Amino acid sequence: MTSASRDRDLRSQLETLTTEAFRPELADVDRLPTPEIARLMNAEDASVAGAVAEQVPAIAAAIDAVAERMARGGRLIYAGAGTAGRLGVLDASECPPTFNTDPSRVVGLIAGGPRAMVSPVEGAEDSPELAESDLAALGLTPDDTVVGISASGRTPYAVGAVTYARKRGALTVGLSCNRDSALAAAAEHGIEVVVGPEFLTGSTRLKAGTAQKLVLNMISTITMIRLGKTYGNLMVDVRASNEKLRARSRRIVAQVTGADDDAVERALAATDGEVKNAILVLLAGVDGPTAARLLDEADGHLRAALSRAGG
């Protein structure tokens, strides 16, 4: 296929995508006053949550499958290009400080590697082979999950990642913003959040990017809830790596136990700052090593550990 024919083929593909559609009613938006443009953009963004809501059953099914595998030691791996890839890397990078996960448990892959986070890498998104290479380096297992992310649902890197992962026996999820996408078809769990044409034609960092961020928030957060990384809506596995998080840790222990500041400090000191362990020390009346053992026996679930201890 010649370069010209490839270009014609790609243009014909893009013309069928909702995310690439032109909005004639916005053709003179550059002539409007700034407050009016801001109001129009805000109104567009307000529709995103509704589009995500339509996909909640599919999202929930994917999350349950992800959590089941992660409970067996599997990893959650995001793969995408451009904005989609950056969103995956962002979500993965937030899991260690929020949920005290090992950085290897939730991984973000972006076409072109780390340099692509800030600069375009020519041709990277067009290579399914690059996705295969990136995933092969991780040594996929059947307990792993690969989430391909692509607003168009046709990006070769994302589709290639899901296709390769499925061949390796890993769980696969395809997150896109167009119906009947190649990405959803390639994955076991297809999530298609159709947000409609963008405010700026084809600029999928806007509504599509917002939708993808919302879904990724749900996937990682609810998976971690299922894995016992929270107690109610409290982040009891938070990693206290700075003063703000250390203060949050003390506050969480106090909220759960009702203990005074001195007791909270002693419990955290006895458990090397581990919030769940400190809560067990205070509520179950055990020492630090016993709290650690109880949590280990309960696979990290605080409620189960408290029940074992009679707390």
From TrEMBL:
<feature type="active site">
    <location>
        <position position="125"/>
    </location>
</feature>
<keyword id="KW-0456">Lyase</keyword>
<dbReference type="InterPro" id="IPR040190">
    <property type="entry name" value="MURQ/GCKR"/>
</dbReference>
<dbReference type="InterPro" id="IPR005488">
    <property type="entry name" value="Etherase_MurQ"/>
</dbReference>
<dbReference type="InterPro" id="IPR001347">
    <property type="entry name" value="SIS_dom"/>
</dbReference>
<feature type="active site" description="Proton donor">
    <location>
        <position position="94"/>
    </location>
</feature>
<comment type="subunit">
    <text>Homodimer.</text>
</comment>
<dbReference type="Pfam" id="PF22645">
    <property type="entry name" value="GKRP_SIS_N"/>
</dbReference>
<dbReference type="InterPro" id="IPR005486">
    <property type="entry name" value="Glucokinase_regulatory_CS"/>
</dbReference>
<protein>
    <recommendedName>
        <fullName>N-acetylmuramic acid 6-phosphate etherase</fullName>
        <ecNumber>4.2.1.126</ecNumber>
    </recommendedName>
</protein>
<comment type="pathway">
    <text>Amino-sugar metabolism; N-acetylmuramate degradation.</text>
</comment>
<comment type="similarity">
    <text>Belongs to the GCKR-like family. MurNAc-6-P etherase subfamily.</text>
</comment>
<dbReference type="InterPro" id="IPR046348">
    <property type="entry name" value="SIS_dom_sf"/>
</dbReference>
<comment type="function">
    <text>Specifically catalyzes the cleavage of the D-lactyl ether substituent of MurNAc 6-phosphate, producing GlcNAc 6-phosphate and D-lactate.</text>
</comment>
<keyword id="KW-0119">Carbohydrate metabolism</keyword>
<feature type="domain" description="SIS">
    <location>
        <begin position="66"/>
        <end position="229"/>
    </location>
</feature>
<dbReference type="GO" id="GO:0016829">
    <property type="term" value="F:lyase activity"/>
</dbReference>
